[in-house]
């Protein structure tokens, strides 16, 4: 079974905030992937709540995310990403994080077609 972390972010309204978010996420992705937390997919709503972003990250286990975040508290690491973190504080209005496990039925082979 695989473990994932899903971040649902409500961005401040406006195209300029979305542009700033996209740029900041390049550095956020670099940081987490250096920690072995791999971005699987990133989405933005096209229908539904305006400016809602979803990022799906593959993690080793539920503590993996916490270990990566703890490394971000290192003074040298924080200094490298300080501008990016400030940008994220300005453009993200709300963040919800969920830790996910793969459901057993997903891992099974699909049933053979009866046609």
Main sheet, how many strands, which sense, barrel? 4 strands, antiparallel
**Order of adjacent strands in the largest pleated sheet:** 2-3-1-4
**Would you tell me the overall average pLDDT?**
90
Give the SSE order as H and E letters.
EHEEHHEH
Q: Radius of gyration, rounded?
A: 17 Å
Shape: flat
| CATH class (first level) name | Alpha Beta
Question: Which fold name corresponds to the CATH topology?
Answer: Alpha-Beta Plaits
Measured between the Cα atoms of the first and last residue, the distance is 31 Å
What is the tally of beta strands? 4
Number of helices: 4
Low-pLDDT ranges: none
* SS-derived structural category: alpha+beta
CATH architecture: 2-Layer Sandwich
Count the domains.
1
In short:
The chain has helices at 15-34, 62-71, 75-91, 104-107; strands spanning 3-11, 38-44, 52-59, 92-101. It is 44% helix and 30% strand. A 4-stranded antiparallel sheet has the order 2-3-1-4.
């Amino acid at each position: 079974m695989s473990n994932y972390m899903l971040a649902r972010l409500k961005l401040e309204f406006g195209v300029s905030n979305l542009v700033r978010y996209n740029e900041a996420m390049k550095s956020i992705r670099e940081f987490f992937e250096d920690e072995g937390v791999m971005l699987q997919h990133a989405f933005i709503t096209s229908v539904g709540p305006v400016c809602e972003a979803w990022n799906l990250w593959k993690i080793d286990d539920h503590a993996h995310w916490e270990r990566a975040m703890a490394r971000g508290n290192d003074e040298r690491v924080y200094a490298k990403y300080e501008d990016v973190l400030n940008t994220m504080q300005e453009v993200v209005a709300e963040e919800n994080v969920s830790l996910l496990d793969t459901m057993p039925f997903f891992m099974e082979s699909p049933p053979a077609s009866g046609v």
